[in-house]
Amino acid sequence: MILGIETSCDETAAALVTRDGDVLANVVSSQAELHARYGGVVPEVASRRHLELAAPVLAEALEQAGATLDDVETVAVTHGPGLIGALLVGLSAAKALAWSRRLPLVPVDHLHGHVASLYVKPEPLEPPFLCLLASGGHTLLLDVETHAGYEVVGTTLDDAAGEAFDKGARLLGLGYPGGAALDRVARDGDPEAYAFPVARVPGFDFSFSGVKTALLYDVRDLPADELARRRADLAASYQRAIVRALVERTRAAAAELGTRRIAVVGGVAANSELRHALGDAALAPLELCTDNAAMIASAARYAPPIPFPEYLALDAYATAA
Ligand code: KG4
Ligand code: ZN
To answer: How far is the CA of 283 from the centre of ligand 1 (A)?
Structure first.
């Protein structure tokens, strides 16, 4: 089995996945609460917490799978993009484990990991497909022809979709990270109450900074009691604008590229309105939408392993090349 390790942001995660895509264990320890009081992830705090959590999370994954390190044949680890200090904790742990047991190591790109969340059982998706990857750090349209990679056909020019959800949630007093909370509150609101525009940029790119500013102006002018009364309507309308932009662009790209199948991955793929609007798309299982290590181990099934001990000099990278 493949041991996956993921520490690119504020989730410490370990998973065990078989060569043919059975997820035997998938343990995610979120640090969200730790960072909530700062209103965002504090990189140095995240690194230190990964250091404390790496071993217990790994132990729990092995226990869940009823396995020991003797059963691990390959170690897979995220080496970027993400917070560099956070990545280095996972990468160092993976190197140490692989080295101590003379195992090969597969470095995995976090974004390829998100796509590979679609390749696990019980319903693995087969390329080709057009993949919308919408998370806290990225909003990408990917043309996926093989299990091993993808071609970027669209990206965000400013904020990521998840970032727009989080900033909107903060403006509405829903805490951090607020995407899921905004999703919940929006269920009681009228999505047509406010007309939030989303910029239409050329090609298949996205832009979410304008919609955030529009919400800021509306919220700023509301007295506190009025804001409380309109919160659900604001959340529903704001969510509608983001989801509409994602869906329109994705459908337009699929039509132009002649791709029959659409898939959605990343944290925002957990959004209920997006899941509903793209009901005909392949959706990653909910627990594999937000950051996890099962998707990293899954991606490693399609990447060449680096033999022992050549990976010891491997470095992490903060941003995609
Ligand atoms: O993929 P992910 O866990 O981490 C990154 O790689 O960024 O995505 C996290 C993002 C956050 O911005 C979070 O607010 C958003 O996904 N998110 C949601 C929902 N659940 C998580 N956004 C909208 N609706 C949700 N239900
Ligand atoms: Zn992610």
So the answer is: 14
Q: What is the CATH number of the domain that holds 147?
A: 3.30.420.40
Q: Considering the domain boundaries, does residue 124 fall inside one?
A: no
Nearest-CA neighbor of 314 among 24, 92, 140? Answer: 92
In terms of domains, do 216 and 260 share one?
yes
Question: Which residue from 268, 289, 319 has its CB within 8 A of the most atoms of ligand 1, so it is best to mutate?
Answer: 268
Q: What is the pLDDT of residue 321?
A: 64
d(CA 189, CA 272): 14
Residue pLDDT, tens place only, 234-264: 999 999 999 999 999 999 999 999 998 999 9
Residues 83, 153, single domain; the answer is: no
CA distance 76 to 240: 37
Asked whether residue 277 falls in the same domain as residue 293, the answer is no
pLDDT at 199 over 90: no
What is the arithmetic mean of pLDDT over 44-59?
96
The pTM is what?
0.95
Number of domains in the chain: 2
